[in-house]
Amino acid sequence: MKNILSLSAIVLFAVLACNSKKAPLETVKPAPSLVESVDPPDAPPKTWKEHWFEHLQLLSRVYYDTSVVVYYDGDVKPTIAWPKTYMAEAWNYTKKTYGKFGDDSRLFVIYHAGKYSGGHPDTYLSANHDYRNVTDCGASSLDAWTTGIDNDIDLSTHEIGHIVEGASKGVKESPAFDIWHDSKWMEIYQYDVYLGLNRTADAQRWYNKMMTVTDSYPKAGTQWFKNWFLPIYDNYGKAKVLNGFFTLLSQQFPKQQLTVQDKSYQQYTRKMNFGEFIHFWSGAAQADLAPLALTAFGPKDEKGADWAPMLTKAKTDFPAITY
User: Fold this and answer.
1) Is there a smaller number of Cβ atoms within 10 Å at the N or the C end of the chain?
2) What string of pLDDT tens digits covers the 323 residues of the chain?
3) Residue span of the signal peptide, if any (predicted)?
4) Residue among 150, 123, 151 at smallest CA distance from 137
5) Where are the domains of the chain?
6) CATH of 48-172, one of 1.10.10, 1.10.287, 3.30.43, 3.40.30
């Protein structure tokens, strides 16, 4: 009996000893702390709520560097990447040719899909787009902007050209807008950009297209590109003569002071007439362009007035412009 009890005690001790061992605990690594990407102080906003015209989209920043900031609305395919390269190249070439546009070196590039067909610009001299140089392009198709060729770059480049005519040399407005309307200046501006970027195929494509364009102003059948801008461009300095026109405007055409965000700029006080238009382009070309104007436009402006007396008066009013 004593032996049986001793054996039972040994078995019980062994069982208790086994049960007293703790199972090894599985080591669980703590979850990594959540690190939110923090932009540097000078970074453009990650989102931008539109507040201009009929635009009401919340835009998302998809890319930025020192040249461009690219925003898409919610319907633009996020895989579209060409604007960050092409728009930077076009903008940098524009600044190289015409000078800087405000203190921010960047162009704010906006794209929409399925809405807002067409485009518009804005500049550092306007509050409408928060004092930024902007191109805002939309299209009715939800598959818009996927190719990065032809109209994708044509419309985008066109809007940069409006920034040039409306805000060059620290002066707001475009005195020649009522004469060349919306697109005639852009025809030669875009041609020069494509050539300047060594996009020879695009330059040829654009040249072929523009050589057939006719307009009703100042007379029916006017070919602005073929008979006015291209001869000036080819014969009198290419990009240099284009920039020269805006330089002369900023130096000679009537202006008034303009304060924008506590900084001093200027604004043109009026539009130019046709005689002044020819006089300023002649000054930029350093050649009398009246014969070319007569061939390209005829003797009258869009309203039917003879521009020769206007040109004579322009020479008197702006004697510093010589050729």
Assistant:
1) N
2) 434 334 333 333 333 333 444 444 444 445 444 455 789 988 999 999 999 999 999 999 999 999 999 999 999 999 999 999 999 999 999 999 999 999 999 999 999 999 999 999 999 999 999 999 999 999 999 999 999 999 999 999 999 999 999 999 999 999 999 999 998 999 999 999 999 999 999 999 999 999 999 999 999 999 999 999 999 999 999 999 999 999 999 999 999 999 999 999 999 999 999 999 999 999 999 999 999 999 999 999 999 999 999 999 999 999 999 99
3) 1-23
4) 151
5) 48-172
6) 3.40.30
